[in-house]
Amino acid sequence: MTLPACSSMTTTRFTDTLWDRTGTLRAAIDDLEFLRRLGDGTLPLDAFRFYIEQDTLYLAGYAKALALLSAKSPNPGAGAFWATSAATAATEEAVLHRNLLTGGLLPPAPGPVTHSPACLGYVSYLTATVATEPYPVGAAAVLPCFWIYAEVARDLAERASDVLSADPAHPYAQWVSAYDDEAFQDSVVAARELVDAAGAAATDSEREAMAEAFTIATRYELMFWADALATQPWPAS
């Protein structure tokens, strides 16, 4: 199937096509026990700690991928957006994670923190795609992290409202409120617009590669979220 290009005559946005194509994967994310228990406040604290530890490692890799994408951007506006997003991931979001890990609300780390297979696979895929594929494909690969996080956070904020109202200092409150923040939601709008523009300028084969990259990154999103409660350890050395 050839994916449509974006144009003023096209009623369906290219990013809507990508979103629809990954509907089954996104439904699986929505159904994860990890997210359900995060929303109702019953998620074990050690599972949340593991998730935040892995997300901290992920953000460091994601920031590098976004910086690479900025350098390959077709215009200054796109470059500035991806560079700003890289800086936000490396600083503001990383600070939030450090505060969660060191603020005394979560149990201490049981040992050295290393990348899980899902985390390492995800950041390695993004870095390799952005570095070796054309700009439109790299832009499509980084979009699920923006978009899925925003949708998950919005849903969690609704589900967790009773828990957070009863206990504003709940360990999960900072994370939920940060990603449901209006500025973060605005960044998703901007990222989608850039991927739509990239899709409009891309060739047919590049648009197919964009769809594949978006799908693979969405698979990694599912694996990453699921890993906190169903951790897949590395084979013993």
* Cα separation of the termini: 44 Å
Question: Which structural class matches the secondary elements?
Answer: mainly alpha
Mean pLDDT: 89
Tell me roughly what share of residues is in helical segments.
over 70%
Strand content: under 5%
**Global outline:** globular
Count the beta strands.
Answer: 0
Low-confidence stretches: 6-10
Give me the oligomer status.
single chain
Largest sheet: none
Summarize the structure.
Helices cover 74% and strands 0% of the residues.
Describe the structure.
Residues 6-10 have low confidence and may be disordered. The protein contains twelve helices and no strands. The chain has helices at residues 14-21, 23-30, 33-40, 45-71, 76-90, 92-102, 117-132, 135-159, 161-166, 173-179, 182-201, 204-227. It starts with 13 loop residues before the first helix and ends in a 10-residue tail after the last helix. The protein is mainly α. It is globular and about 50 Å long.
Indicate the topology:
Layout: H1 14-21, H2 23-30, H3 33-40, H4 45-71, H5 76-90, H6 92-102, H7 117-132, H8 135-159, H9 161-166, H10 173-179, H11 182-201, H12 204-227
Can you tag this structure with a few keywords?
single chain, 237 residues, mainly alpha
